[in-house]
User: Fold this.
Amino acid sequence: MKSLVILGATGSIGTSTLDIVRIHPDRYRISAVAAGSDVAGLAAVAREFRVDFAAVGDASLGPALAEALAGTGIASGAGEAAVIEAALHPSDLVIAAIVGTAGVRPTYAAVAAGRRIALANKECLVCAGAEFMRKARETGAEVLPLDSEHNAIFQALGRHTAAEIDRMTLTASGGPFRTWDAARIDAATRAEALAHPNWSMGAKVTIDSASMMNKGLELIEAHHLFGVAADRLDVLVHPQSIVHGLVSFVDGSVTAGMAVPDMRVPIAHCLSHPERIRSGARTLDLAAISRLDFLEPDPVRFPALRLARAALADGGIMPTVLNAANEIAVASFLEGRCTFGSIPRTVEAMLERFARSNSKPAHLDDWLEVDRSVRRETVGHERSAAPYPAH
Ligand code: NDP
Ligand code: MG
Assistant:
């Protein structure tokens, strides 16, 4: 019996994880869960899986959670300290699936405690990747990539090391705007941006997929996870989302990680690694799909990819700036306060502004202080971001 902690238990990744646990009640026990503000959803999960501890991130919701769990004997807490307490609850594996920078401290706490982590929260590695991986090396915390592309690469890599690798490739579906022209993308609505053709995911990562910022964040994630230099990381647009990642070795061999586009596949891999279990996903039928297409990404219509590459190349706090500005701009777009096109323009403006004070902080608190100051600068800016000149 393996015990699990699920951070982000009410979200898209959290819910898919619970689906797999339901198939294997004899293998997994959930010891602690955390969510942001969905008290009813969190309490339902806590009750169904008889967890020991449940935490809600919003500090004001402590009494509501305690009331929702009254009579169950399940302990609860509220606020970031309680989410960290959930992360540190005894477990064999921590599923790190909180969305955004809110996931950084709880996941880092699990890393600092030397826990085994299944990492969905890519923002951890984009915001403070160097410090995150340094801490993992120090404590021996094993970080299993849960993000589908990185999980595919992890599987394709096998036991090989960085010296044997020529290149790594992440694929991207291209999102709902893959064939749209720049002006139409610029004016896209919330509903259009949320209509992902292949994947069902939370709102933030779905918007990031539409702008292709998701692939930019994932390049930075791959750099930290696998220790591969930025100029050896490629992106290929692959509309069918069947091949998720490829590893090209120095001898010319290429291995690919393939699966139907269903997050239960990489989640099940992380849960059972190094064994295999059923995930509930359907079997890949290549004859039914019949063809797989691969195209170069277009950096003009999708400037986010170019911005992420530049931030990774510049290093220091620039990926932190990219991530924080993007998170504010995406939230603003989702709330109807700015256009789709102003997301990359805002990020670009913030990268320019912070380039003058680029640095390499030594401690997590310093990285998070940069994150906070970028957020302060970004708020309001996204609504006035000027359009790109017509190409
Ligand atoms: P969702 O928006 O669906 O879920 C986010 C989860 O985080 C919810 O459980 C939410 O709780 C919780 N949460 C939000 N804020 C806090 C907080 N302050 N403290 C504790 N919990 C909090 O996101 P996804 O599941 O789509 O994504 C989660 C992460 O996984 C992201 O980093 C994303 O990039 C990554 N990822 C997701 C993929 C997907 O297919 N969905 C694929 C690859 C990576 P509440 O419900 O209460 O708001
Ligand atoms: Mg991904």
Observations:
- The radius of gyration is 20 Å.
- Residues 147-149, 218 surround magnesium ion (ligand 2) (CB under 6 Å).
